[in-house]
Amino acid sequence: MAPSGSPGGHTARPGVSTPPSPGKPAVGPPSAVPSAAASPPLDLESLEVQLRETKAISTFTKLTLKNQIDDLLERLRAFYQGQLKTSLAELRRSFDLLVMKVLALLQDTDPPLAGALASSRESIWSVLSDPAKLDKF
Length: 137
Fold this sequence. Notes:
It is built from 5 helices and no strands. By secondary structure, the protein is mostly helical. The protein has one domain (36-136). Helix 2 runs antiparallel to helix 3 (88-106). The radius of gyration is 22 Å and the shape is globular. 11% of the residues are buried.
C-alpha cells in the first residue's frame, strides 16, 4: 500500500525538494530586478541623463558615482594605452561592482531605470571593452 500525502505515493519531507510535475515549469527565486527583461537596453548618453534626473539617488551619491565612473573610464583608457598593469577581467569586475551598486540604489525607488540598467549591462560593457568605441564616448 502506498503512503498517502501526494499522488503516486510520495510524501513530502521538510528540506527535501521534489522535481516539478511534468508539464509544470520549475519556479526559481525571484529576480533582483523583475523588470529587467522587459526593459530595452539604454545607450550610454540616455543612461547618463536618466541617472542625473532620477530622484532615487541623492545629489551627494550621484557625485560619488560620477567620480567612480570617471575613475573606471580613466583606468580603461590607461589599460588600452598600456599604462595600467591589470587585466580586462579585473576592470570588468570593477564595472560589475559599480553596476550592482547603482542597481541597489535604484531597485526600490526607480524600478524602471533599474530594469533598463540591468538589461543594458552587456551593451554598456561592449562599448567600454572596445577601445575604438570607448574613444568615441
